[in-house]
Write a structure and sequence with these properties.
Elements: H1 2-25, E1 28-36, E2 63-70, E3 76-82, H2 89-103, E4 110-114, H3 125-130, H4 136-162, E5 165-175, E6 179-186, E7 189-195, E8 203-210, E9 217-224, H5 239-251, E10 256-261, E11 267-269, H6 275-294, E12 298-300, E13 304-314, H7 321-328, H8 333-349, E14 355-365, E15 369-374, E16 377-378, H9 381-389, E17 394-398, E18 407-408, H10 411-416, H11 419-423, H12 425-428, H13 439-454
Parallel strand pairs: 3-4, 9-10, 15-17, 16-18
Antiparallel strand pairs: 1-2, 1-5, 2-3, 5-8, 5-12, 6-7, 6-11, 8-9, 13-14, 14-15
Length: 460
């Protein structure tokens, strides 16, 4: 009998340890903060070369939002979303250094995602001067906005961390159908036109944050793979993603809605070009979030595993100096400027860059959710491929993450040609030549490498 009593006592102890471990895995702390980032003065707007004047008011405020997460082990992740065209690399690097020193956040603990709205300010002074030839006062406004934004986001991260409180995380998903592939093959190659037969990713992943008992909802983070280009006028606006966040918050008072854009570089909201369509697409996306909330939520447990790395993407060899000089002398405004910049790089450094350090971010939530963040304007092939190849937990692939320096084509898109493959390089001015066909392999390989890194688990 004594032996039986000892066994029962041991079993009870083991059970209590197991229960404590399970509780520990679910013991999240979450903090939330929001700040308006709408420019106070009329500014040149980012995204379209066709604009001829600064902004004229706003439809609604642009916002930056921070979601701070802390698991039971004290590992932290702060996700910052913003109604902006994109975060430049120098902004990301400077912000990571500042919040690292001030809040003890490691670089991999900071994930930025810009909605890529084309109705926000041009915050890249280099592009305001080099690409758009804006007046000096507009270039100065871009520089000032960059500085103001940096200060606001640093404070935003701090407020989110100060707001950390016990919470529960859940995953849900649904679908929305307004994104359409925009690469259409014609007699002269691929153009930006609706292609109803092209690849799409209509998934709407949702991360739900509630109180520990699940009774009070605090935040909804949702994504979609589609360009934020319904509008092209002169008023600041978050476009369909901005409306979707507003509609979700209206339906759930007290809840903060976050939008994380997916791999939508070759996807356009369709139809577009009117405010009504922007609102309708926003409503469609918010309805998808509501549809997701109807289904049973899947628990998202810890621990957090984070990895941030660079893939060295190969660039094509540049044209000859003679070809570059000929292009520089051409009447093509953008082609001429681009060639002059490449020639300047060659003259200054004696060579033209042949690689680009591309950021890849991986976040693993226990065995329940894997988030992959890819930099730049990433075409849909990447999300479709990675969701097939990455086994295990649910996979959420985000584009426009941490920096936006240009388009990131897949091998297929690069070989087909068109704007996303080569044409856009003239307008970004961040790369001297297009990527080589190894671009997809190098990015995907780096994703798999980082996933293997975060899959290492502590043994009891």
């Amino acid at each position: 009998m004594a032996n039986i009593a000892v066994v029962l006592t041991c079993l009870a102890a083991l059970e209590s340890v197991g229960m404590a471990a399970n509780t520990s895995e679910e013991a999240w702390k979450v903090g939330i903060a929001t700040v308006a980032i709408t420019p106070e003065k009329p500014m040149w707007m980012a995204g379209y070369a066709s604009r001829t004047k600064p902004s004229e008011g706003k439809v609604h405020d642009l916002n930056a939002k921070a979601l701070a997460l802390e698991d039971a082990r004290g590992t932290r992740l702060v996700i910052v979303t913003a109604d902006l065209i994109g975060f430049p690399r120098d902004f990301r690097d400077r912000l990571a250094k500042t919040v690292g020193a001030r809040y003890q956040l490691r670089p991999e603990s900071l994930l930025l995602n810009a909605s890529h709205t084309h109705s926000g300010p041009e915050l890249r002074a280099w592009r305001a001067s080099q690409t758009w030839d804006l007046p000096p006062e507009q270039i100065e406004l871009s520089q000032q906005y960059f500085e103001t934004l940096h200060g606001k986001v640093v404070e935003l991260v701090g407020r989110a961390l100060a707001d950390l409180a016990p919470a529960r995380l859940s995953y849900l998903h649904a679908r929305a159908g307004f994104a359409m592939n925009r690469r259409l093959q014609g007699a002269k190659g691929y153009s930006i036109s609706p292609n109803s037969d092209g690849p799409v990713d209509h998934d709407v992943p949702v991360l739900q944050v509630t109180s520990p008992d699940g009774k009070k909802m605090r935040a909804l983070v949702f994504g979609y793979a589609c360009h934020n280009t319904t509008l092209s006028d002169y008023e600041f606006c978050g476009d369909y993603a901005g409306f979707a966040q507003l509609y979700v918050q209206e339906a759930h008072p007290g809840v903060t809605a976050f939008f994380v854009i997916g791999c939508g570089a070759d996807q356009n909201p369709t139809p577009r070009r009117t405010m009504e369509w922007a609102q309708q697409h926003g409503r469609a996306l918010s309805n998808a979030v509501e549809a997701a909330l109807v289904s049973p939520p899947r628990p998202v447990r810890g621990p957090l595993k984070l990895a941030l790395g660079e893939a060295a993407l190969e660039l094509e060899n540049p044209p000859s100096v003679e070809e570059l000089k000929k292009q520089a002398a051409s009447a093509d405004k953008y082609g001429s400027r681009f060639a002059k910049e490449v020639l300047q790089e060659l003259e200054t450094t004696g060579r033209v860059r042949n690689t680009y350090p591309y950021l890849v971010h991986v976040v693993k939530f226990g065995e329940d959710l894997l988030m992959v963040g890819l930099a730049g304007e990433v075409v849909v092939d990447y999300s479709l491929r990675l969701k097939k190849e990455l086994a295990g937990p649910v996979v959420w692939v985000a584009g426009y993450t941490n920096e936006v320096s240009g388009y990131v084509p897949s091998r297929r898109v690069l070989e087909e040609g068109g704007y996303e493959a080569r044409g856009a390089i003239l307008y970004y001015g961040t790369l001297p030549t297009p990527f080589t066909p190894t671009v997809e392999t190098r990015i995907v390989d780096k994703v798999h490498e980082l996933v293997r890194q975060v899959q290492t688990t502590d043994k009891p």
